[in-house]
Design goal:
Blueprint: E1 15-20, H1 25-34, E2 40-43, H2 53-60, E3 65-68, H3 72-81, E4 89-92, E5 104-105, H4 112-120, E6 123-125, H5 129-143, E7 154-160, H6 165-175, E8 182-184, H7 194-201, E9 208-214, E10 220-227, H8 237-247, E11 254-256, E12 279-286, E13 291-298, H9 302-317
Parallel strand pairs: 1-2, 1-3, 3-4, 4-6, 5-6, 7-9, 11-12
Antiparallel strand pairs: 7-10, 8-9, 10-13, 12-13
Helix pairs in contact: 1-9, 4-9, 5-7, 5-8
């Protein structure tokens, strides 16, 4: 039997990655997701030059991708160190550039066009943990004409204490069971995530957002209550669920639970998707009353931070989008 020529393997050079802020919660989880990858190489500043701005500038301009896990001002300073014409692309996990001109918002599920934009972008702003759940629930309803852009959206969400950074983690772990089981905050309604929520959900006005911290390490659940009588086009709970399912059909990261009238269930809780980059959306409703609840569940350190950063990195370097987005299961 005649055989054709052997298939040529596609060779790609190793992609060099610098995680600036690799010792923080987000940086550590990104590193854990990337270790063992054969298509990238992780580089770090020489410990002896860790506080040397010149060393940081040199490294920022020498790598293919810099992932910034820094406070806002430090992120701005790092980006300013990257010289014009540098090949270095950036994924920034702070809030500094999420609605900035010239930056792609790192939520590929917004649309196919948006996924392509991330793939080709020199600068990508990783989304905040809380906003993605609200955006995922609301944006498709506005796009479908079910909800108007000026609908008075409210968003209530609870996150594990790991979202508060090193100090909060230390405080909660020191207090143990005596720590507050549910601590509302953001009660001045000026949370730093509001601009990206409004822009990427395509709302005419910022939502009322009320976050809270629970006494558990990680995991997130957000809820958007809806009055059907205020919708532009009346829809049952099942129809709203089908709208969301159509919006995320084929998505590897966002799934929509089957519509079910239940009082409670084992899959409804903030920790059920921990250590993954997945998000699950639920729709609960009482059609007689016209009350609907949109719910998002995901890991604040996964799809809400580190997993999302790796997903965006994969798109930017041409790797399989889902490669390494979940934390490896410990042996």
């Amino acid at each position: 039997m005649l055989q054709g020529p052997p298939k040529r393997s596609i060779w790609r050079p190793m992609t060099s990655i610098f995680i600036d802020g690799e010792a923080g919660t987000t940086g550590l989880q990104i590193r854990d997701r990337l270790k063992g990858r054969t298509d990238i190489t992780l580089v770090s500043i020489d410990p002896e030059r860790r506080k040397d701005p010149a060393a940081k500038r040199e490294l920022l301009n020498a790598v293919d991708v810099a992932i910034l896990c820094l406070p806002d001002e430090a992120a701005r300073e790092a980006v300013a160190m990257i010289e014009p014409g540098s090949r270095t692309r950036v994924i920034d996990a702070s809030t500094a550039f999420r609605v900035a001109e010239g930056w792609a918002y790192g939520m590929p599920e917004l649309s196919k066009a948006h996924r392509s934009r991330i793939a080709g972008a020199p600068r990508v702003a990783n989304p905040g943990c809380y906003p993605q759940g609200m955006i995922a629930c609301v944006r498709p309803l506005i796009a479908a004409g079910i909800m108007s852009s000026d609908y008075p959206v409210t968003y209530n969400a609870v996150s594990g204490y790991s979202g508060g950074g090193k100090k909060m983690i230390e405080d909660y772990e020191a207090k143990g069971t005596s720590a507050s089981p549910y601590m509302p905050y953001g009660l001045t309604f000026a949370h730093k995530h509001l601009p990206e929520m409004q822009v990427y959900a395509e709302l005419a006005h910022a939502p009322i957002f009320q976050p809270a911290v629970g006494n558990y390490a990680q995991g997130m659940m957000g809820c958007v209550p809806v009055f059907s009588e205020l919708l532009t086009r009346k829809a049952t709970g099942a129809e709203i669920r089908d709208c969301l399912a159509a919006a995320y059909e084929g998505s590897a990261m966002i799934e929509v639970a089957p519509y079910a009238e239940i009082e409670r269930g084992p899959d409804v809780g903030p920790e059920v998707l921990n250590n993954t980059n997945r998000m699950r959306l639920h729709v609960f409703a009482n059609d007689v009353r016209g009350h609907v609840l949109l719910m998002s569940i995901y890991d604040n350190l996964g799809k809400g931070a580190s997993g999302a950063a790796v997903q965006n990195l994969n798109l930017m370097i041409g790797a399989e989008e889902s490669l390494g987005v979940d934390l490896p299961i410990a042996a």
